């Protein structure tokens, strides 16, 4: 990761108070300024997408973000877990899921037999993570045809050049407090409340499966539909009970008036 300017002020992030003990204050704002932010300090300051991987459902890796050496070292364990998740995925798996592992969360979405997965800080907004993945999926499936990425003779990491788009998009989503990302968070069209969340230990070491997550997710969607239908029916029944007698009297009066004058 490129080092930040030595005089950068991070007052706009609203997180200066968290680093009050370790960083000096900005002379112009009277707040904290960055002196020489380490990778770990930058992690405290920004809650963001750490790494991205794209693979087919048969486990073949198609592309991945190129991470710096320090990030690679810190993310080595969770990247191994991501590979285990890829090996467990199939067409019966939940189309979207969030998996928690320590201080990180793995989010994935499946589109056209391709899994787009990102590793984020646990505090990074889930809605933003899935919007990020949707952007990657849209660009990938537009740039490459299904005959290319589903080819049986394809070699691993055949689309390594896609990292250019990954890095550019990741930069846009770097700060969850940026105005364009706040707009995405407020977008009511992307509902992630029904996306299943699972702990990595339950998934990899205690026998829970991604297929079961898919079944539970589907069951939740069906229950939600039934609830909405029942709610609509109950609302109509209440309206009829409340206003039905008045409507009936009004109808009788209208009929009598029509019969009397016409």
UniProtKB/TrEMBL annotation:
Gene3D superfamilies: 1.20.5.110, Longin domain. Coiled coil: none annotated. Residues 53-166 form the Longin domain. GO terms for biological process: endoplasmic reticulum to Golgi vesicle-mediated transport; protein transport; retrograde vesicle-mediated transport, Golgi to endoplasmic reticulum. Its main location: endoplasmic reticulum. InterPro entries: Longin-like_dom_sf (IPR011012), Longin_dom (IPR010908), Sec22 (IPR044565), V_SNARE_CC (IPR042855). Keywords: Coiled coil, Endoplasmic reticulum, ER-Golgi transport, Golgi apparatus, Membrane, Protein transport, Transmembrane, Transmembrane helix, Transport. The chain crosses the membrane at residues 243-261. Residues 181-241 form the V-SNARE coiled-coil homology domain. CDD domains: Longin (cd14824), R-SNARE_SEC22 (cd15866). One of its GO terms (molecular function) is SNAP receptor activity. Pfam families: Longin, Synaptobrevin. It is a single-pass type IV membrane protein. GO terms for cellular component: endoplasmic reticulum membrane; Golgi membrane. This is Protein transport protein SEC22. It comes from Penicillium vulpinum.
């Amino acid at each position: 990761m490129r080092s930040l300017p030595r005089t950068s002020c991070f007052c706009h992030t609203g997180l200066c108070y968290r680093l009050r003990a370790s960083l000096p204050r900005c002379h112009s704002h009277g707040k904290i300024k960055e002196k020489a932010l380490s990778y770990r300090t930058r992690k405290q300051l920004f809650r963001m997408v750490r790494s991205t991987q794209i693979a087919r459902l048969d486990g073949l890796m198609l592309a991945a973000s190129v991470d710096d050496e320090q990030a690679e070292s810190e993310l080595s364990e969770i990247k191994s877990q991501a590979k285990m998740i890829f090996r467990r995925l199939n067409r019966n798996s939940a189309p979207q899921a969030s998996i928690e592992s320590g201080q990180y969360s793995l989010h994935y979405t499946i589109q056209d037999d391709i899994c787009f997965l990102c590793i984020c800080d646990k505090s990074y907004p889930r809605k933003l993570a899935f919007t990020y993945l949707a952007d990657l999926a849209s660009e990938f499936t537009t740039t490459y045809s299904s005959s290319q990425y589903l080819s049986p003779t394809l070699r691993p990491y055949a689309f390594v050049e896609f990292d250019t788009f990954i890095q550019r998009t990741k930069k846009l989503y770097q700060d969850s407090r940026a105005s364009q990302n706040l707009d995405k968070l407020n977008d009511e069209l992307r509902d992630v409340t029904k996306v299943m969340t699972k702990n990595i230990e339950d998934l990899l070491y205690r026998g829970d499966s991604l297929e079961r997550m898919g079944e539970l997710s589907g069951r939740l969607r069906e229950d939600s539909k039934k609830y909405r239908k029942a709610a609509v029916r109950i609302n109509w029944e209440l309206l009829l009970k409340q206003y039905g007698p008045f409507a009936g009297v009004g109808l009788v009066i209208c009929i009598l008036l029509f019969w009397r004058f016409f």
